[in-house]
User: Which sequence fits this backbone?
């Protein structure tokens, strides 16, 4: 598969390429399909697509909860990982930053980031601690997509990529 001529090898590649686009953008997807079952020969099919806004349904709790004052532009507040975090969350190291607070219904929360998630990479740069997180987020502007890799309890602490658009 390709998106605008860029090869897509994994689901994360596809998610990242689409997240870099804005709603309303047009893309060309090239999909390779086998012409007949069991045959190795493939036939490319090109599809032109206009991207739409991702639908959002606010959770019922959003109306009862207001964003925290310390939430940053993507709706989270992070901190250094302490020994207590390592023990409480079952972490293997203190590498990364832990999400301490979320803005309910905010950009990160809508992508399933919750307190206790550990951010280990932003924009392809490893996050060892709070300084790395702040450095990575320093140049982020409204409308940008922040690509981060985080581990969360609900994924069994398997690293997963999250692409979060900063509100305009």
Assistant:
């Amino acid at each position: 598969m390709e998106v605008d001529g860029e090869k897509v090898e994994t689901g994360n590649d596809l998610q990242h390429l689409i997240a870099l686009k804005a709603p309303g953008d047009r893309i060309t997807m090239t999909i390779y399909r086998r012409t007949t079952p069991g045959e190795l020969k493939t036939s490319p099919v090109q599809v032109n697509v206009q991207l739409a806004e991702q639908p959002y349904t606010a959770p019922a709790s959003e109306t009862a909860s207001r964003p925290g004052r310390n939430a940053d532009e993507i709706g989270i507040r992070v901190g250094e990982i302490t020994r207590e975090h390592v023990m409480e969350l079952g972490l293997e190291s203190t590498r990364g930053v832990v999400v301490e607070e979320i803005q309910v219904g905010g950009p990160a929360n809508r992508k399933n980031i919750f307190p206790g998630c550990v951010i280990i990479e932003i924009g392809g740069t490893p996050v060892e601690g709070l300084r790395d997180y702040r450095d990575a987020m320093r140049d982020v502007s409204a409308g940008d997509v922040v690509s981060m890799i985080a581990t969360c309890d609900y994924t069994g602490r398997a690293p997963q990529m999250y692409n979060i658009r900063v509100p305009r």
User: Anything to note?
Assistant: Residues 11-19 form the longest helix (9 residues). The chain is about 15% helix and 30% strand. The chain has two domains: 2-50, 66-165.
